[in-house]
Amino acid sequence: MPLTVSATPRLPLGFSGRSPAPPKGLIRVTFLIETIKLGLTNLRLQMLRSILTALGIIFGVAAVITMVSIGEGSTAEALAQIERLGAKNIIIRSQKPPEDQSQQNSQQRSFVSKYGLTREDLRIIEQNFPDAEAIVPLKEVGAQTLRGEKRQTSQGIGTTPALLEAAKLRMARGRYLTSQDMANRDLVCVIGHEVAKEMFHLEDPIGLTIRIDQTPIRVVGVLAPVGLSGGAGATRVGRDINLDIHIPITSARVVFGDTVVRRTSGSFQASEVEISEIYLVAPTRSRVVSDAARLRRLMTQRHGNMDDMGMIVPYELLETARKEALTGQWISGAIAAISLLVGGIGIMNIMLASVTERTREIGIRRALGATRKHIVSQFLVETGVLSSIGGLIGVALGLGLSIGLNVLVPWLPRAPMIGKYFPADATLPTLVSPWSVIVAFLVAAATGLVFGIYPARKAAAQDPIVALRHD
């Protein structure tokens, strides 16, 4: 039988009979996934140690977010209070000058001290600032405010309708003073929120009567609450605006005159002040500082060293508050950096101890073909995962504390047993800044990686033979 040789089958073009090699990109992704799995497995095997290691990062990030939110909240509240005074306003206010002995003897004979702004000052200011958006005079009147058996020290203020806009006030109900009230010298008033609350309690004050000294005045409006009540806000404006009673300045001059007598226990104080306060509203914010300097020079020419008046420029207060806020942010950042540095050192210490414990494991991996790059990658993945998870938990904790403080602190005065140790108006405003959350997390993750480099390089640098002999 003749020997037949079968023909070798022809393979398709480009087919070698072997499976094609996977692309390098896929190999790298697979390697990274396996390294991450291995790192997570090692962390899970030492769960308690991993949690304790991450505590430094967790508390560091939470402290950063909470501190920044408290600082931002307090700053925002202070800026809002100053903004309510009007960023374009210049407020000049009469104040009793310091007295020497000769002045005291003279005033004991006359019983009346005369000082402060005059109507002539107001006229000259109006002449020198013709382009001002508004120039609003205020005049304090009366010694007491009364309604029935209720009484309090008067904060009666004679003013014009322009004060509503100049002082950034809002109406709760009723109306504000009008030009008709001014022309007719009507005995009408607009009362502050606290006056309505204390004097009228559950009644609607609109249309009812209140007395300044013995003069009955009809209430036509109630101002909305103003956040400048008490504390630093009252210091800035010289009084609690919520206790004001506004009447037409024309009525104030005719009915009450310029002399105000305030009686206290066993003594009384009488003062003659024509104008208590003047609001000058600059045409633009850029003009505020220059107009304030010009007004100060003008008043210095008329009143010498201005010891009988003071000036408030909210815009300058605003700029000062912003600079203080920036300083506070730098301080918070420095404290945050220290907190995260401590957390990073903790991670490095634990990873160095882990290198010593896993010396034999490292030797076995190197003997099976793992390179130094593989060992470094494994340890960096572990520190990166540890710091990232710690950062996420810290972010959640920081957000929870920031929101919780905003709700908890106002409740503390009503808390049983401990409420008496807190003021009734206790608040701690917080404002979470997105940048603080992002920066805190990124710095935490970066801190873990940076402090994990040295332990990873130390592990990779070990001699495989020596590592295999390690017990």
SSE blueprint and pairings:
Elements: H1 24-45, H2 47-84, E1 89-94, H3 101-110, E2 113-114, H4 119-128, E3 134-141, E4 144-147, E5 150-153, E6 156-159, H5 163-166, E7 171-174, H6 179-184, E8 188-191, H7 193-200, E9 209-212, E10 215-223, H8 231-237, E11 245-248, H9 249-256, E12 259-264, E13 267-272, E14 277-281, H10 288-303, E15 309-312, H11 314-357, H12 359-367, H13 372-411, H14 434-460, H15 464-469
Parallel strand pairs: 2-13, 6-11, 8-10
Antiparallel strand pairs: 1-14, 1-15, 3-6, 3-14, 4-5, 4-9, 7-10, 8-11, 9-10, 12-13
Helix pairs in contact: 1-13, 2-11, 2-13, 2-14, 11-13, 11-14, 13-14
If you had to describe this structure to a student in words, what would you say it looks like?
54% of the residues lie in helices and 16% in strands. A hairpin with a 2-residue loop joins β9 (209-212) and β10. Strands 1, 3, 4, 5, 6, 7, 8, 9, 10, 11, 14 and 15 form a twelve-stranded mixed beta sheet that branches. The chain has two domains: 25-79 and 321-469, no CATH class; 89-281, no CATH class. The longest helix has 44 residues, at 314-357. The chain has 15 helices and 15 strands.
